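Hey, can you fold this one?
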Amino acid sequence: MIKHIVAWRFKDAALGATKAENLKRAKAAIEALADLVPTVRHLEVGLDIGAAHDSWDIVIYSEFDDRAGLDAYQVHPEHVKVAELIGEMRELRAAIDYEG
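Sure. Predicted structure:
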């Protein structure tokens, strides 16, 4: 099993919308990938609840059967669209992939 975790910090405003609006839009777009990309075995999206100072805004936790599944996800056209959208909204990105 491959686990893929990505966290982002969003800009205060982007694409004519506020951070809060963009976070909601990004969350919905990411969650839709679970049904659009066949290699996704599990996918969760979380928005920061504001409990910690200097935290990240949004995180994705996803699982794939193997590295080939993750690789297929990365180049899937629906994932590419979402990644491009988030690229316009984010300031920072951190990611980790691991076997577990």
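The chain is about 40% helix and 40% strand. Let me know if you want another pass with a different chain boundary.
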